[in-house]
Amino acid sequence: MVTGGGRAPGWVDEACVEWTKRIERHFAVRIVDKLPKLGTRARLVALDERGEERSSEGFAGLLEEGIRASAAPLVFVIGGPYGVAPEVAASAWKTVR
Q1: Kindly report the CA angle at 93 between 87 and 97, in degrees rounded to 5?
Q2: Has residue 5 got a pLDDT over 60?
Q3: Cα dihedral sign for 63, 67, 69, 73?
Q4: Distance between CA 38 and CA 52 in Å, rounded?
Q5: CB-based contacts of 66: which residues, under 8 Å, 6+ apart?
Q6: For the segment 20-51, what is each residue's pLDDT rounded down to a tens digit?
Q7: Are strands 2-3 and 94-96 parallel, antiparallel or unpaired?
Q8: pTM (two decimals)
Q9: How far apart (Å, rounded) are the C-alpha atoms in residues 32 and 42?
Q10: Residues 96, 62: contact at Cβ < 8 Å?
Q11: Is 24 exposed, middle or buried (0-12, 13-18, 19+ CB in 10 A)?
């Protein structure tokens, strides 16, 4: 999971901690501030206000689709107040809000 845009408000840090607790039972999670160099197989999911709206079940389906489609890692990028950078959006496998 990649967070960007500098120091996040406290509620964002709390949400990341809570989300990590929930998902790390099933997946390896690493939180970084800058997008690392990704292999060409990585599936980037942009979390952006302009993305497709998904229910909890829909988000679970996205995870399942990403896992079943490839052995490549899923990388989630959390957009800042203005969304994700255009180059991130352009390289995203999926964009959701």
Answers
A1: 85
A2: no
A3: positive
A4: 23
A5: 43, 45, 74, 93, 94
A6: 888 888 778 877 777 777 777 788 899 888 89
A7: unpaired
A8: 0.73
A9: 16
A10: yes
A11: exposed
